[in-house]
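Hey, does this match?
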Amino acid sequence: MIEDKVILVDVNDNQIGLMPKLEAHEKGVLHRAFSVFIFNNNGELMLQKRALTKYHSPGLWTNTCCSHQREGESNIYSAKRRLSEEMGFVTELQEKTSFIYKAKFDNGLTEHELDHIIVGNYNKSPIINSFEVDSWKWMSMEDIKNNIKDQPYNYTAWFKIIFEKYYKYIS
């Protein structure tokens, strides 16, 4: 199996190199990523619970899917590819904004990402990949906001940051 490499970037999202994904997370090096938010016609967000086998943030609730672009892929192409791989469907997507965050995890790994927020609409049930996703559900934005306040430990670091600081781009 070929080891996944992430795209190392500067703060302006210019590619400056490639690095194996795990090494980038061990060293906390800034790299390109994306977070997909899929809404239904009722304005509910499709959340996924990360698989328990994930090497960081296992079993936590987060946005519909997220991952890293491969070299030569556009943000939208990467998001559609990963949405299909994790959630079993593809839909039209639109990039809304991007931001940089850094989060350290208990296992010594660090996410340091320039994360592109990507939004789409879908009204059916996903066909989840159980190697990536443990569960899924639709939730209203208000319910998510209240649940994050009451139980922040149930959500991924990047999802809480996006929900707090970039809410206007996803709502």
Q: What stands out?
A: Residues 5-170 form a domain with the Nucleoside Triphosphate Pyrophosphohydrolase fold (CATH 3.90.79.10). Residues 75-87 form the longest helix (13 residues). The chain has five helices and nine strands.
